[in-house]
Amino acid sequence: TLCTARATSEVLRMHGCRLTVFAACVAKAAAPPSRRFSAKASGGGSVKVPPALRTSQALVGHLRARIQILGPLSIADYMREVLTNPLGGYYMKGGMLGAQGDFVTSPEISQIFGELVGLWFVTRWMASGSPQTPIRLVELGPGTGALSRDMLRAMSRFPIAKNLSLHLVEASPTLRDVQEEKLASLTKTTDSASAPGVRVHWHTALEEVPTTDTCYFVAHEFFDALPVHQFQFTSEGWRERLVDLNDGATPQSSQEQQQQQQQ
What we know:
By secondary structure, the chain is of the alpha/beta class. It is 36% helix and 18% strand.
């Protein structure tokens, strides 16, 4: 995902938004990201622009406006924007997963992976005495839903299934649709149409998942996609690295920035 953020940064530079990462005082870190995205695409004219390019320009316009109004972004805020912003975030589009997409994960290669993970959860349930109480199976960042589908296929052969509900923490509406289609034959969803099987609930954040019952958590290739803050040790102590506009200038290296600070 860090590579994704860097690649997106290169796309932004191509469309007139030059970004540079620089050391700044932690006390001056950017404000938390807004939940509303209202910036319009930058630029104008009557030239026909492909949809993907229009989306990139809209995201560029939003980033420029946000930085101009609120100041430099933390690396975490920048990653969050380029990955999940409805104006063109990487995970807001479709087709990035699978053989025809940008990358392939283990559940997409073989169903055996997910089925073994599901059986492992069954053994943990048995080891705890096979309790006949509600159990929430929670997947963080479920992608196409392939892992949950294969886990449920294996778990459905055991008594645990009658007390099981599936909770998917997914921020992308596009991926939610993909997951629903993938799980349709095995589940009944509470947020849309229903079919025989395990109940499925979607959540946009982990905080939305109820914790009143036993919860089993699974996350595959998820933590590497979480927005992170980045810090650098300078001659003046630790400083947070931020993303700022740098129109018309050549981005400085960390060494050049430290030299300027020392001067």
